[in-house]
Amino acid sequence: MKIIFLHGLGQTAQDWNEVVKQIPRFDTDCLKLFSANKNDITYLSILSELEKKYEDTTEPFVLCGISLGAILALDYTIRHKDKVSSLILIGVQYKVPSLIIDFQNFIFRCMPQKAFKNMGISKNSMIKLSHSMRSLDFTPKLKEITCPVTIICGEKDYANKKASIQLNAQLSKSKLYIIPNAGHEVNKSAPNEIAAILTNENS
Fold first, then answer.
1. Who's near 180: CB < 8 A, 6+ residues apart?
2. For a disulfide at 88, which of 9, 20, 64, 201, Cβ 3.0-4.6 Å?
3. How many Cα atoms within 13 Å fall on the side-chain side of residue 177?
4. What is the pTM of this model?
5. What is the C-alpha to C-alpha distance for residues 161 and 17, in angstroms, rounded to an integer?
6. Are 42 and 128 in contact (CB under 8 A)?
């Protein structure tokens, strides 16, 4: 079984390494969502690249994403139900609050350009990407998701915990895990717990 990992805004594919090490029996892909060579990076351009990468895949896979990656995973599953066998969403918003995006972009504007180097994206592109997510709202499409969904949120991820609980209530085949003492980047702070959940839900 293949598990495809999608990292968050401000992360890289390497931020899944500690999780992947603990699930060696699974075939895994950790995708790099950004390219420093591209200036026109938007939410839709990243989604389009994801669709192209797996357009010829015939065997359904598990899609696991955190933050931006979770939003992409949710959107992809709505668009391509036949390709996703199960869905793991970490620190997810299904209706992106504009206030969170605006605050996030304020933080990005205050950060030096060099802080974005390791992410593979420029400061301006990061701000543009974040802004392109302001109007996303998957509420009307949630009922179309028929595969099993695992929702994970850090206990201290105050920006996303309420949305995680609400999303769990709206999906017919979902489970919710709140990770004690963890913040937003659960894949980095609690990789053991994430690996255990992945193994349990896909055994």
1. 155
2. 64
3. 19
4. 0.92
5. 24
6. yes
Q: Which amino acid is at 197?
A: I
Q: What share of the chain is helix, strand, coil (3-state, %, to 5)?
A: 45, 20, 35
Asked whether residue 39 carries a pLDDT value surpassing 80, the answer given is: no
CB–CB of 182/158 below 8 Å? no
How crowded is residue 5: how many other Cβ atoms within 10 Å of its Cβ?
Answer: 25
Structure tokens at 53: 């990468």
Instruction: Tell me: pLDDT of 36 over 60.
Output: no
Distance of alpha carbon 31 from alpha carbon 14, whole angstroms: 9
Residues contacting 188, CB < 8 A, separation 6+: 11, 15, 18
Q: Is 87 helix (H, G, I), strand (E, B) or coil?
A: strand
β-sheet bridge partners, residue 37 = none
Alpha helices, DSSP H only, in 68-185? 68-79, 98-110, 123-131, 161-170
Residue 71, pLDDT above cutoff 80: yes
